[in-house]
Automatic annotation (TrEMBL):
The chain crosses the membrane at residues 49-70. GO terms for molecular function: protein heterodimerization activity; transmembrane transporter activity. This is Organic solute transporter subunit beta. GO terms for cellular component: plasma membrane. InterPro entries: OST-beta_subunit (IPR052678), OSTbeta (IPR029387). Keywords: Membrane, Transmembrane, Transmembrane helix. GO terms for biological process: bile acid and bile salt transport. The keyword Transmembrane applies. The keyword Transmembrane helix applies.
């Protein structure tokens, strides 16, 4: 309480008579010297240092923003290339499968084995790729 009052004015509140010291152990002469020092201090050095520090922080933030933008663009382009590559690969596989089916069908008509005549109604018969005919039941 004494120190705050001392900073507010150069008058020291003395509750005792004579040359009393403050609660912090500072004499009145030292207090007046400190107050004179803080009053005459030029704050321009502090203001300039804060201005430079804020400018450096802004430049660093803009640099990080630019790096992030570039990396996101590269990542998106890489993902688009991968998607295009997988699409082309899938189309190529599908076209190769269609060519194989066409070549298989153009190789010559397969002779289908006649279905056995002893087949009854409701009987399920399966003709396999190798040409064999079997009954499921």
């Amino acid at each position: 309480r004494y120190f705050l009052a001392a900073l507010a004015s150069t008058q020291v509140y003395n509750h005792t008579a004579g040359n009393a010291t403050l609660a912090l152990g500072i004499d009145q002469e030292q207090l007046e010297e400190l107050l004179w020092f803080f009053r005459r201090e030029d704050p321009s050095a502090w203001n300039y240092s804060i201005l430079v520090l804020s400018f450096v922080a802004m430049i660093l933030g803009l640099f990080l923003l630019a790096v992030n933008i570039v990396r996101n663009r590269k990542r998106k382009m890489h993902m688009q290339r991968e998607a295009a590559r997988t699409t082309k690969q899938a189309e190529l596989e599908a076209s190769q499968a269609l060519l194989a089916v066409k070549e298989y069908s153009l190789a010559g008509p397969q002779k289908q084995e006649p279905v056995p005549q002893d087949q009854g109604s409701g009987e399920v018969v399966v003709q396999w790729k190798d040409g064999t005919v079997t009954s499921l039941y």
